[in-house]
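Hello forum,

I keep getting stuck at the same step: I have a sequence, I want structure tokens, and every attempt I make locally crashes halfway through. Rather than fight my setup again tonight, could one of you with a working pipeline run this one for me? It's a single chain of 319 residues.
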Amino acid sequence: MSEHGPGHTPSGGHTSPFVEIARADWAALAPTTELPLTPTEIVELRGLGDRLDLQEVSDVYLPLSKLISLYAVGARTLQRDTSRFLGREAPGTTFVIGVAGSVAVGKSTIARLLRELLSRWEDTPRVELVTTDGFLLPNAELERRGIMARKGFPESYDRRALLRFVTKVKSGAAEVRAPFYSHLSYDIMRDAEIVVRRPDILIVEGLNVLQPPESGHGLAVSDLFDFTIYVDARTGDIAKWYEDRFLALREGAFTNPKSYFHRFADLSLDEAKALAHDFWSQINEPNLLQNVLPTRSRADLVLRKGADHAVTSVLLRKL
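Reply #2:
Ran it on my machine without issues. Output:
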């Protein structure tokens, strides 16, 4: 990745729309806030390969949840004041958060963690989480289009369905349904779905949630977000995390005979490493460099991780 991402000021005098805050300074922003999660709960939220611990939750994610809570309350106040100004009664709308980043960077863990932390704040008790995996086209359709090898690229999603889903949630629909994706079968489950009922906050997590409109005009799902987060790390570090996760899955989930990837369970260690490298270099890295990373500058906040998977600094867009 570029040495001069959001928040850096190269010698050429380029100014950034972000202010970069060191982890220690960020942690000091919420010194008296009590952590509402136990060590056991944090372990249960942690994804495969993540090294999330109590200290990082306290240093990084507790202040982040407080900041988002302030944004959500502020948005609600603005909606109420605007309604009064217009002389119309209008119900408050759901505050929507987008969480983006590469495969294996830890964004799913962060999204789950934020769901738990935000639901502990008094003003936002009802928090729902939806991943964009549910809006992937079914495998049969990907095969029909000849893009099965590009699963996870923008064109492999039903972006219109995702846009309709978030639009309905923002419009205050009493009940909105989303498709359910099974990581075991690696496909959309036709007999299952996720139901969202007017939450205070909706978190939408996925690779490409910060993408602009397809043709440069019209509406993208990112236009409906009230706050956006990009989880960042060096490409080489993410590649290693991806390989480590693949090898862990080979000894875990892949051993399930019902798993789509069960055929990889009996690979030797060297064969598994080679296959993980191929998947990364041929699919995930190109998608990151071509589609995901270019959206980083569109985020409101960037979490920058070091080689040990821990957040080293936070970049917040200037207001």
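The CA atoms of residues 93 and 281 lie 41 Å apart. If your local run keeps crashing, start a new thread with the error log.
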